[in-house]
Amino acid sequence: MRRVIAVWIPIIIGLTLLTGCSGKQAETQSSETTSLPRVRVDSVRHGSLRSLQVLSGETAYLNRRTLTSPMSGYITESKLQVGKSVKKGQLLYRIRTREAEALGQSAVGTKDMGTVEVRARADGRILAADKMNGDFAAEGTRLGVMAQTSDFYIKLFVPYRLRDAARRQGQFTMAVAPGDTIRARLADSLATGDASSQTVIYLLRTDGGRVLPEGMNLNIPLVTAEHRHTQWLPKEAVLADETLQHFRVMKLSDDSLALSITVQRGLVDSGRVEILEPHFDPGSRIIIEGQYGLADSTRVKVQAGD
Asked: How many CA atoms lie within 13 A of 201 on its CB side?
């Protein structure tokens, strides 16, 4: 009996020690897992990216027509209102000669005798009105200024190095107000550039003949480059050095090992970054949050749901 007890006592002690060691090891592993940096990941995607540069634009009428008095007389009726649109044939001014005004209607005989009407020769917009009812205007005096609708353009100021990109794009979309955009097409260019900004000037004509007030400043996006069927990552995934010349990402090689991978960056388009090199395999997981400050070959813990 004593021999049996003597045999079992070492066995029991060994099992007790083994159980205790296993428990401590499990606790240690659990503690290490809990202390690992927590990260979020995303996959490499493919699609098209554009590089945009916002250029300046300005609404303008290239030609203006000065309205002059065809004879000396008094303005008996004025229809000019600055900023208002007018139609071809619409009455602008009615002028009565000085003689007719002095003699009165009874001496002249009829209401329209000695009266001349000034009408719009084309659709347009009134830019200036110099004479009002009752004013005297000598022959040749300026009555106002009118711009024809057909002379409305948007001036696009393009740096010389981007002139080919502007001609290649041809069609432009721009916002004039929240929720209000217009489209315009390249129609012509001016022989002279803008000296202050050192740009060439292209003329855009709005689709549908829409006319805007003169002197409006517009921001017009120009596509300077476009890459199709390329791989890209969210902007948050790409880390840069202090010089902003070298870039890298943190890629998961398994469920928890993060490797630092040097990448060659391409186009950047509204929160997306093109990766030219290397070419990642489909399904590659790249850290997009929590990677800042991580060294190469760091163990991490991926947050649930990623």
From this structure: 17
